[in-house]
Structure formats: C-alpha cells, structure tokens
C-alpha cells in the first residue's frame, strides 16, 4: 500500500490544469478586436513584423504584435480599405509601432490617437498628415507611397510654455500633439481650483481624481481669450 492515503496531494494537478486552461481561454478571448479588424496577418516584410521578430517575448497574432500580457505593441492595418481607424482603434493605445499605409484615410486623425503615448513609429498614406502636426514628432519623412512619423515628442515640453496647466494641475502627455492637465492631490474641479477631499476619490483612486482632459487646442483658445481680455 502506498504510504500516502486517499487524500494524497493529487488535487494540485487538476487545479493546475484548470488554471492553465482558464489562462489559455482568457488569452484567446483577450485578443483585441482591432487585431482582426481586417483579414489576414501582419505582412511578412512590414516594419511591424520586423519589430515583433526583434524581441523574443513578442508574438504575432492576426494584424497585431502582442506582448505576453496581450497588450498591443504593434499594429499592421495596411491595405485594409480603412476610411477611418474605427471605434476599436483605441485598443491599440499601447502600441509602439502602427502601419496604416495604403488606406483611403481621411486626413483628420488627431483624435484617433488620443492616449497613444507609447507610439514611436507611425506609417501613413502619403496624403495624410502626421497626427498632432509636424511639431508633435521628431522626424517626418515622405516616400513616394507613404510617409513616416517617428519619435513622438512630449507635448508638455515642446510647447515651451510652463503655464499650460492651471496652478495646481500638472501636465502629462496624452498622445501626439495632445496633453492632459491632472489636478494635484487635494485639488479637483474646473482648472483644479477646488480644494478639499473629494468623496469619490476613495472609491476610484487615481482615476477618480479629477482630470481635466483637454487638448492643447482648447487651452490655446482659452489662453488667447484670457490674454485678449
Ligand atoms: C510569409 O509568411 C508565410 C507564412 O506566414 C510564408 O509561407 C512565406 O514564405 C513568407 N514570405 C516571406 C517572403 O518571408
Ligand atoms: C491590397 O490588397 C489587395 C487584396 O485585398 C491586393 O490585391 C493588393 O495587391 C494589395 N496591395 C498591396 C499594396 O499590398
Ligand atoms: C468593435 O468591437 C466590438 C466588440 O468589443 C465589436 O462588436 C464591434 O463589431 C467592433 N467594431 C468594429 C467596427 O470593428
Ligand atoms: C520633458 O520634461 C521632463 C521634466 O521637465 C523631463 O524629465 C523629460 O526628459 C522631458 N522630455 C523630453 C522628451 O524632453
Ligand atoms: C494652489 O494651491 C495652493 C496651496 O497649495 C493655494 O494656495 C492656491 O490658492 C491654489 N491655487 C488655485 C488657483 O487654486
């Protein structure tokens, strides 16, 4: 008879199997819709493919290059007949490289890239301007069939204006040519002028602290008005 009784530790095995299964299922379910937004996979010779193959932990799935957590680091939607990036494009806000060339895109992409703070290389059709304008990027290069926007600038710095945000707000980048003013601890409300504890803060943590999500455009307008008056 085995020295171990009927209660020998056979439980961990099914548990482990169940866990692996659950993780596997979760991984599959977690594949973002934007990765299958158009048929096919990342083009073999695309920049996204070479970026993805460069790092062993990254894997190609449909039109995406994903990291181990399933976050999108690369997205290749070239030649997808896209007129606009679509509502699910924001799923790619973690991307470092995005290829949108050979699409009939309308030239109004500024808001599509809100929150895309990691983006370093963007490939666009030749007739579409880099989001945020030329000043939002370190290098903009035109080729016969496409153009590249490379090296996203920190827009909190590149405006050269230290007073973009209200007195008790701090500036954080929010994508190409975009920024956000976040009220410092203890302040909330319009222009971070209200002081005191904010009851929702304890429930929402950092997300609950009032953020003034604004574009530089909006602030520019307000500041110009303020100066004018
Ligand atoms: C492209 O990828 C496919 C499989 O995904 C492969 O069969 C083919 O040889 C690759 N082509 C090149 C040029 O690497
Ligand atoms: C774009 O896709 C179509 C098929 O959907 C294909 O015929 C064409 O060659 C592709 N163009 C490029 C530049 O890859
Ligand atoms: C966006 O994703 C949702 C699921 O989250 C899906 O139902 C919808 O069809 C997608 N929209 C587009 C335009 O792909
Ligand atoms: C932007 O400014 C911050 C602090 O002022 C600095 O740490 C950061 O390196 C700057 N970023 C760039 C891209 O200049
Ligand atoms: C910013 O905070 C300081 C105290 O930290 C306060 O004295 C000042 O009035 C605040 N400014 C505004 C505009 O609320």
TrEMBL record:
Q: Which InterPro entries match?
A: ATRAID, EGF
Q: List the disulfide bonds.
A: 183-192
Give start and end of each EGF-like domain.
152-193
Query: Which GO terms are recorded in the biological process aspect for this UniProt protein?
Result: positive regulation of osteoblast differentiation
The source's superkingdom equals Eukaryota
Signal sequence span per UniProt? 1-30
Q: Which UniProt keywords apply?
A: Disulfide bond, EGF-like domain, Membrane, Signal, Transmembrane, Transmembrane helix
Q: Where are the transmembrane segments?
A: 198-219
PANTHER family membership: ALL-TRANS RETINOIC ACID-INDUCED DIFFERENTIATION FACTOR
Q: What is this protein called?
A: All-trans retinoic acid-induced differentiation factor
Read off the lineage from the record.
Eukaryota, Metazoa, Chordata, Craniata, Vertebrata
């Amino acid at each position: 008879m085995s020295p171990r009784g009927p209660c020998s530790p056979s439980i961990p095995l099914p548990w482990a199997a169940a866990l692996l299964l659950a993780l596997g299922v979760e991984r599959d379910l977690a594949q973002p819709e934007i990765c299958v937004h158009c048929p096919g996979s990342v083009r073999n010779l695309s920049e996204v493919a070479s970026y993805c193959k460069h790092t062993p932990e990254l894997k190609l799935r449909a039109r995406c290059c994903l990291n181990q957590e399933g976050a999108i680091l690369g997205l290749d939607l070239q030649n997808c007949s896209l007129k606009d990036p679509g509502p699910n494009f924001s799923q790619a806000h973690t991307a470092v490289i995005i290829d949108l060339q050979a699409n009939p895109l309308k030239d109004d992409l500024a808001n599509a890239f809100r929150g895309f703070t990691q983006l370093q290389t963007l490939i666009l059709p030749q007739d579409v301007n880099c989001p945020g304008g030329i000043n939002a990027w370190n290098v903009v290069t035109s080729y016969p069939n496409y153009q590249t926007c490379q090296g996203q600038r920190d827009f909190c710095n590149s405006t050269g204006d230290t007073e973009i945000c209200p007195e008790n707000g701090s500036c954080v980048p929010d994508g190409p040519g975009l920024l956000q003013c976040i009220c410092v601890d203890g302040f909330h409300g319009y222009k971070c002028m209200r002081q005191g504890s904010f009851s929702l803060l304890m429930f929402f943590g950092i997300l609950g602290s009032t953020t003034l999500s604004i574009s530089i455009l909006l602030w520019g307008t307000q500041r110009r008005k303020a100066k004018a008056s």
